[in-house]
Design brief:
elongated, single chain, 5 helices
């Protein structure tokens, strides 16, 4: 079990980013094995939903506080990108992996996401980490990881994306998502 209390927030966020990239690669590698593709797409969607809400609840408010007006602009930009991702992922949930539209939309989602991830990794995270203490970063990392455990596992574009309302609505939708997840297939291992 990973000890999240002793690492920077950047490490937690980067771990998620790398997992999303890995799940996308495994989705692509499955090629015409649609059952396997669906499992990796489901895991990708599941992780992205949790990651997105955790960023909106934990990281973006901290980014705004640490960087002032520059942080507010960055967080607002990232929230707008999240909103598009939420809408696209919700549309994806209504498609079958065998549909041509599924592959097209999944490719769009990933292309947009990769742009978003690189922007965070190359611009926002370095500035943010330089503006806060190591202790604060570790505390935020622990909060980020804990938050993901309690967040929805599906995208809900109509819900608020800023605390405190994002927190409350996320907690209310999580049980419904967990029930839906019981009927969703996922890979049996990350290998």
């Amino acid at each position: 079990m990973t000890d999240y209390s002793n690492r920077a927030l950047t490490a937690s966020i980067m771990e998620d980013h790398n997992e999303l990239r890995e799940y996308h690669e495994k989705y692509l590698a499955a090629k015409s094995d649609y059952e396997e593709r669906a499992k990796w797409a489901n895991l990708f969607r599941w992780e992205l939903a949790r990651h997105t809400v955790a960023e909106e609840i934990i990281w973006y408010p901290a980014l705004e506080k640490a960087l002032g007006e520059e942080g507010v602009k960055a967080a607002d930009h990232d929230r707008a990108e999240h909103q598009q991702s939420k809408e696209d992922l919700q549309a994806l949930e209504n498609l079958q992996v065998t549909d041509a539209e599924f592959a097209r939309l999944f490719a769009k989602i990933y292309k947009d996401l990769e742009h978003h991830l690189k922007d965070e990794e190359e611009k926002d995270l370095p500035k943010f980490e330089a503006a806060i203490s190591e202790e604060e970063s570790k505390k935020l990392s622990e909060q980020f990881e804990t938050t993901k455990k309690w967040m929805p596992t599906r995208m809900h574009p109509s819900l608020p994306n800023k605390p405190p309302f994002a927190t409350v609505t996320a907690l209310l939708t999580t049980p419904i998502d967990k029930v839906k997840d019981m009927f969703t297939t996922f890979p049996t291992s990350n290998a």
